[in-house]
Amino acid sequence: MPSRFGRAVLAALVTAGASTVAVAEPITAAAPSTAYTEILPAPVSAGAERGGFTIDRHTTITAGPGAQGVADYLAGILRHSTGQPLPIVRPSRGGNTISLITGGSNAPSESYRLDVSGRGVTLTAGRANGLFAGVQTLRQIVNGHVIPAGHVADAPRFAYRGAMLDVARHFFTMAQVERYIDQLVQYKINTLHLHLADDQGWRLMINSWPRLATYGGSTAVDGDPGGYYTQAQYRAIIQYAASRYVTVIPEIDMPGHVNAALASYAELNCDGVAPPLYTGTDVGFSSLCVHKDVTYTFLDDVIGELAALTPGAYLHIGGDEAHATSQADYIAFMNRVQGIVAAHGKRVQAWHQIAAATPLAGTVAQYWGTTNDSPAGASGVVLSPANLAYLDMKYNGSTPLGQDWAALIEVRDAYGWDPGTYLPGAPSSAIRGVEAPLWTETLRTSADLEYMAFPRLPAIAELGWSPASTHNWDAFELRLAAQAPRWRAEGINFYPSPQIPWR
Ligand code: IFG
After folding, report:
1. Which of 10, 112, 242, 471 has the fewest CB atoms within 10 Å distance of its CB?
2. What is the H or E stretch that residue 45 is in?
3. Please, what is the average pLDDT of the chain?
4. What is the value of pTM for the model shown?
5. Closest ligand 1 atom number to CA of residue 437
6. Which atom of ligand 1 lies at the shortest distance from residue 390's CA?
7. Facing residues of 216 across strands?
8. Does the beta carbon of 390 sit less than 6 angstroms from any atom of ligand 1?
9. Beta-carbon contacts of residue 462 (< 8 Å; ≥ 6 apart)
10. pLDDT in tens, 453-500
11. How far is the centre of ligand 1, averaged over its atoms, from the C-alpha of 106 (Å)?
12. Which atom of ligand 1 lies nearest, measured to the CA of 257?
């Protein structure tokens, strides 16, 4: 039986693809390498080796072509945590470096490979978004100045891994949105759906219809302070998200959930009379005037400005709870608005009620039901079942924040489903991914958001990223427990669910 060292060499040969030997048994894991078994979301494959890489005052970060942005991001994190200078240098043959390498390979988007040994760290990916995903894994493995040795090969199960933030019921500043983005990306979420307008508030300046923001954005639920993003501020949010490889999907909900718009412009109302601003929490009582031409001039202006502000391919047009719009009017309206969005070069995402109309090719239906009846007709489905993925649902009957109309959702409920097989009527090929909405009727501060989002958002994030084969509650609860020290260090106000053996 070869010595332990011999086994390491043999394993290294095998890892290196020297197919001449078969290792008698796997490498024994070194002490600090529990991190490789507790990466969240669970990677496709991860294995620890002995030893580790020590970051010292001579350590550099090497950035290949296209890797500069990720290198800057990683340097910021590690300089802060280690106090070492970690200069970013061009590729060279020297050791003692953390190399970020993007190959033009046709690797699947966001895939990466992380290799750590005593001699150095190499993070390889087809594209920069894969490097960024790998950096999130590296952040979980690094232990002070030491990065334990090992290997990770990883790629996402679903391309769309989203979180929605409702900034309409209560307004959240740029800084609060950016804080949430930095929390999401730790778990490889890559899409932020911003719910920008609703009955209680319009949160984005539209230059051609300025009262939407200045008046329609002046209040919030319970009469709490309103607010809105100037277009410069909104661009800054988009830029910040893009620097974290997050695509923003803006939502202007219609034809319902429009009281803020109707209150801002009398001509948008069928009777020409503007209703008062609304600070309650009812839904389904408002509708755009489907039969007025001005409605479509209004929407062409709004969608045009929004499209110009949106680098991403999709605009979300809502379509939920249009109880004040007849079914026939709803269908005609949604079909006409899809054409307006397409005319501005964007694709449509909408709540799954759009399936009652004629979804355009490319339109994505976001399922928020509680009875897993699939929305036919859409070319793609994003899953947000309200009884499993709505982060504004209470954890249990005594949760101080949130609502309970869909369900009480403890961590195990949020984790206990499979997006690939959830909708019997939708082939798994139609499932683009998952999204965890956070509605803010009852939420006012970042601490409120965090209490509801953590620890359930990481559960949804794992459903979106990890292979179905890794889905296992007993393993997941340990992965989740290992995140708590990080959340405490970052000041994340998480709910300490009794279901988890927190560290
Ligand atoms: N349903 C409404 C939201 C919000 C939510 C709160 C959707 C698509 C209840 N529509 O969810 O506006 O009020 O849980």
Report:
1. 242
2. strand 45-54
3. 92
4. 0.93
5. 11
6. 14
7. none
8. yes
9. 40, 41, 42, 187, 415, 476, 479
10. 999 999 999 999 999 999 999 999 999 999 999 999 999 999 999 999
11. 40
12. 12
Answer yes or no: is the C-beta of 404 below 6 A from any ligand 1 atom: no
What does CATH list as the number for 4-154? 3.30.379.10
CA–centroid distance, residue 40 to ligand 1 (Å): 28
Q: What are the extents of the domains in the chain? A: 4-154, 160-468
Which residue's structure tokens are 């040969």?
Answer: 13
* Whether residue 24 has pLDDT greater than 60: no
Of 34-43, 87-96, 119-128, give the range with the top mean pLDDT.
119-128
For domain 160-468, give its CATH number from 3.30.70.890, 3.20.20.80, 3.40.50.720, 3.90.25.10: 3.20.20.80
Q: How confident is the model at residue 428 (pLDDT cuts 50, 70, 90)?
A: confident
The DSSP-derived string for 77-143 is HHHHHH-----EE---S-SSEEEEEE----PPTT-EEEEEETTEEEEEESSHHHHHHHHHHHHHH-B
Tokens of 136: 């999130």
Q: Kindly report the backbone phi and psi dihedral angles of residue 151, in degrees, each rounded to the nearest multiple of 5, phi listed first.
A: -135, 140
Q: How remote is the CA of residue 418 from the centroid of ligand 1, in Å? A: 22
What the block records as the tokens of 261 is 């718009």
How far, in Å, is the centroid of ligand 1 from the Cα of 14? 53
pLDDT at 376 exceeding the cut of 80: no
439 alpha carbon – ligand 1 mean position (Å): 7
Active site residues: 321
- pLDDT of 466 reads 98
For helices 293-309 and 327-343, give the axis angle rounded to 10 degrees: 40
Residue pLDDT, tens place only, 322-364: 999 999 999 999 999 999 999 999 999 999 999 999 999 999 9
Q: Which of 254, 321, 392 to mutate to test the pocket of ligand 1 (most atoms within 8 A of CB)?
A: 321
Ligand 1 and 494: CB distance under 6 A: no
Handedness of CA 394, 398, 399, 402 (dihedral sign): positive
Nearest residue to 139 via CA among 182, 175, 193, 108 = 182
